[in-house]
Amino acid sequence: MAVSRETDEERNSEAQEHLSGAHTHVREDGTVYEHMHMHVHENESVPHSHGHVHSHESTKAVINRLSRAIGHLESIKRMVESGRDCSEVLIQLSAVKAAINNTGKVILHDHIQHCLIDAVESGDTQAIEELNKAIDRFIK
User: Fold this and answer.
1) Is residue 64 part of a domain?
2) Which of 26-30, 32-36, 79-83 has the lowest mean pLDDT?
3) 100: domain range?
4) Is 1 a member of any domain?
5) How far apart are CA 23 and CA 90, in angstroms?
6) 136 partner at 20 to 30 Å CA-CA among 50, 57, 127, 129?
7) Where does the UniProt annotation place the signal sequence (predicted)?
8) Is residue 106's pLDDT more than 70?
9) Could you give the CA distance from residue 130 to residue 112 in angstroms, rounded to a whole number?
10) pTM, whole model, 2 decimals?
């Protein structure tokens, strides 16, 4: 049985994280991530932020999807520059919009599976409110 001994530096770091709202999670699969919940008071004009610093299993897939969408968009730009038919350009733009929407769905699913579950378990109602706002913005 291994015994973990905390150093003063580790204890101070944990205390700082606690004060700042940052905390680290380790999933069963070994994925380590850190996130924090920052809240804005009613008299402040800065919007609430639910910051995350972590990596999910789908991060690479999301990056690949975004890279493909960027490449596709660049090819559409070349189509416009070369004077291609407007109908062809619109069809390709529609494909990019669908790719971006599908990428958003992957991110949303990932957020629900990894972040929202933690928020619900810890009683963080602000994270749930933020998700609702993000969904509203996403589906506009």
Assistant:
1) yes
2) 32-36
3) 8-138
4) no
5) 45
6) 57
7) none
8) yes
9) 12
10) 0.57
- Lookup: tokens for 17: 């994280």
- Tell me the three state secondary structure of residue 23: strand
50 with 38: CB under 8 angstroms?
A: yes
Alpha-carbon gap, residue 27 to 32, rounded angstroms: 6
Cβ(97)–Cβ(105) below 8 Å:
no
- 34 bridge partner residues: 24, 53
β-bridge pairing 32-36 and 52-53:
antiparallel
The answer to the question of residue 32 being in a domain is yes
Say if residue 73's pLDDT is above 90: yes
What is the tally of structural domains in the chain?
1
Q: In terms of Cα–Cα distance, which of 27, 21, 14 is closest to 117? A: 27
- Tell me, what CATH number does 116's domain have? 1.20.58.1000
**In the structure encoding, which two tokens stand for residue 19, read together?**
């004060």
pLDDT of residue 30: 56
